[in-house]
Amino acid sequence: MDGIRVLVVDDEKDFTSSFSRILKRRGFKVDVAADGLLALHFIARSSFDVVVLDIRMPGMNGFRVLREIKRLAPVTQVILLSGQFPAKPDGNASCEGAFAAVMKPFPVMKLLDMITGAAVHGRRLRRLPRGGTLLSGWECPGRI
User: pTM (2 decimals)?
Assistant: First the structure.
């Protein structure tokens, strides 16, 4: 898939630096934000296929950023990252509209495949007329 635009949001500079290099080598177009406010600045000014978003960050946490992303850019797909996910009563991660939730550390190739799948899904949503069926009921289909 050509030209997948990814925004990587994490306060760990070593992670964002190394992961963005991996993505760029694979042909992804990548921007990096060190916090939630900067991520929302990017979202407001540009279009992304996928946001890879850490949950635990200083200031605005990942869930709050996710809600704002979904308000500003509803078809942008978000993959949540964390070392530990807050659980819902049924034991599943609380995804709040994310495409997927990924536990750190993660297998890089699987996450790359998940990013591609999320981009494909988002592009399908963009082609649907408003109110299309794919827009409803999509909640965290995968975790790795």
Answer: 0.83
